[in-house]
Design a protein that fits this description.
There is one protein chain. The protein is α+β, with helices and mostly antiparallel strands. The chain has three helices and four strands, in the order βαββαβα. It has helices at residues 16-30, 59-75, 90-95, and strands spanning 3-10, 36-44, 49-56, 81-87. A hairpin with a 4-residue loop joins strand 2 and strand 3. The longest helix has 17 residues, at 59-75.
Length: 101
């Protein structure tokens, strides 16, 4: 079973291609996190929100990443970070073609 981490926060930008250019190094560094499997980046320019959906091998890896990432975002001046952790239901996710590995 894998663990899904949902993170969102208020952000004034950048968004779209500017986000790609500004956060490419950050995206590459996430690949090195312990237990990391994948991330889907999320953004909503209209509501000034950003974040991501992550998949980790263990609950501990997801919790450790959330703690570290929250501190990193705080350092960028983002003080309100919402994080939720979910266990995945692999059998049902497989039926719906979910990428768990």
């Amino acid at each position: 079973m894998a663990y899904l981490l949902q993170v969102d926060f208020k952000m004034d930008g950048p968004f779209g291609q500017e986000m790609v250019e500004g956060f490419k190094d950050l995206a590459m560094s996430i690949n090195e996190e312990k237990g990391f499997i994948w991330k889907i980046w999320t953004e909503n320019e209209v509501n000034s929100e950003a974040g991501g959906i992550y998949l980790f091998e263990t609950k501990e890896d997801a919790e450790n990443y959330l703690e570290m990432h929250t501190k990193r975002l705080n350092g960028f001046g983002i003080t309100e970070v919402n994080g939720k952790l979910f266990e995945t239901n692999d059998a049902l996710t497989k039926i719906n073609h979910g990428p768990l590995t």
